[in-house]
Amino acid sequence: MTAPTADPQAGQAVKAADRAHVFHSWSAQGLIDPLAVAGAEGSYFWDYDGNRYLDFSSQLVNTNIGHQHPKVVAAIQEQAGKLCTVAPGFAVDVRSEAARLVAERTPGDLDKIFFTNGGAEAVENAVRMARVHTGRPKVLSAYRSYHGATAAAINLTGEPRRWASDTGTAGVVHFFGPYPYRSNFHAESEEQEGERALEHLEQLIAFEGPQSIAALILETVVGTAGVLLPPPGYLAGVREICDRHGIVFILDEVMAGFGRTGRWFALDHYGVTPDLLTFAKGVNSGYVPLGGVAISGEIAATFDRRPYPGGLTYSGHPLACASAVATMNTMAEEGIVENAARIGETVLGPGLREIAGRHPSVGEVRGTGVFWALELVKDTETREPLVPYNASGEANAPVAAFAAACKKRGLWPFVNMNRTHVVPPCTISETEAKDGLAALDAALAVADEHATA
Questions:
Q1: Closest Cα partner for 252 from 221, 288, 298?
Q2: Within a 10 A sphere around the Cβ of 405, how many other Cβ atoms?
Q3: Which of the four pLDDT bands, split at 50, 70 and 90, describes residue 4?
Q4: d(CA 120, CA 116)
């Protein structure tokens, strides 16, 4: 591990330039104070003051292979020396190999890969393919979801980041997915939750008119909106409903894919094959922007003689594809997916459940692999959230104080609303995971101050 060297003056210069010229996403520009990052390696990154942080956020849940993996860095450097860029209309060895490696890991006949620059564009194009393929206008998505910030993707998103961009005319209809801890269906068991969520979906489709619905999109495991694992049988039930009504089934694996859940894709846990599968993030750990859509044979055939009405200047960018090839090969060679599964089963899962037993602010622990969430509450009996839905400012103070306590202990958390997610790189070691849990355990004492013992 490279030891961070303190250089506060350089850090101040970086921050000054950032404040003068960089416009940050999802932020009130005058209220933020971005950390100036000097470097990163493995499971850690550090600032210019010499403070090192264990990255329990994987940045935006995307550095699955860790920071600065030497094999991926070398692959980018080698490709840059060979061919930096080329238009997407050409056949290029590294693009073809990246597509082959993705298709090798997808189920069924999801063998054609359309490359994008990221997850939101993958969702945009999947929806476009479904609408053209079916000739239908509507798309269904869950309220507890995040699918991206581009035009269609943000309308598909269920959480509050959609509100400012929701046109109300995008042909999107939202529904409630399963969430046993806060059931919308008054379910008393996980099995009942899945059954009633499917009944709700059936009814909504009947009322909307199945002949008007092009696609249904779900995150295989809901990510930013809560790390919600589908109850047994739920995804298979959705698949059956879609088949019965001729609706294209899209699974969004942008966050859940490429080792995050302890499998190459989260769908591997559930034995379900969608018609379209979107991916990004972990396919190359974000080293160079890349996403894509894996396309079934039936939908791909729609465009055999009919031009596909979409494209991107940087679709299948050589540097991005080189990093994807190196990432997938390295994950296979080094057993990184298996490591994520083992760490989840032997360290994170047991450790988080043990922590929950000590803290009145923890209402539920859920997850798999290196994809976990702690639901923070004021009262474990009533399940009242530690902060209100979409809280900001003073209303969000308890969670902000908890996050600050994590950072003070050298842990960089991923917090969203009343939850903290535990989403370190898939490469994290047992020692690093235990260190992170110890810091999290200590920081939760701050959250406990706002909970009923």
A1: 221
A2: 19
A3: confident
A4: 9
Comparing CA positions, the residue from 51, 41, 38 lying closest to residue 428 is 41
Adjacent-strand bridge partners of 115:
292
- Nearest Cα residue to 181 out of 352, 344, 347, 362: 362
Q: Which two tokens stand for residue 277?
A: 């599968």
Of the candidates 231, 278, 267, the residue with the CA atom closest to the CA atom of residue 128: 278
Instruction: Give me the residues paired with residue 138 across strands.
Output: 213
Residue position matching structure tokens 């930013």: 224
pLDDT in tens, 249-301: 999 999 999 999 999 999 999 999 999 999 999 999 999 999 999 999 999 99
CA dihedral of 223, 224, 229, 234, whole degrees rounded to 10: -80
Is there a contact between 260 and 369 (Cβ–Cβ < 8 Å)? yes
Pairing of strands 371-376, 411-412: unpaired
Tell the residue number behind the tokens 């302890």, with chain if given.
262
In the structure encoding, which two tokens stand for residue 430, read together? Answer: 């047992």
Length of the chain: 453
To 5 degrees, how large is the angle CA 427–CA 100–CA 132? 110
Map residue 142 onto helix, strand or coil. strand
Decide if 280 contacts 291 (C-beta within 8 A).
yes
Which residues are within 8 A (CB) of 312 and not within 5 positions of it... i.e. 6 or more apart?
Answer: 88, 115, 116, 117, 121
* Tokens found for residue 177: 């997915």
- Amino acid (one-letter) located at 10: A
What residues have CB less than 8 Å from 202, skipping those under 6 apart? Answer: 241
Distance CA 261, CA 367 (A): 8
Kindly write down the DSSP assignment for every residue of 38-76, as one continuous string. EEEEBTEEEETTS-EEEETTHHHHT-TT-BT-HHHHHHH
CB 335 within 8 A of CB 109: no
Q: Which amino acid is at 80?
A: A
For residues 433 and 343, give the distance between their C-alpha atoms in angstroms, rounded to a whole number.
Answer: 8
Q: What average pLDDT is seen over the chain?
A: 97
Taking the CA atoms of 194, 197, 203 and 208 in sequence, report the sign of the dihedral they define: negative
Query: Is residue 453 classed exposed, middle or buried when 0-12, 13-18 and 19+ CB atoms within 10 A define those classes?
Result: exposed
Read off the pLDDT of residues 34-86 as tens digits, 9 standing for 90 and up: 999 999 999 999 999 999 999 999 999 999 999 999 999 999 999 999 999 99
Residue 3 has pLDDT above 80, yes or no: no
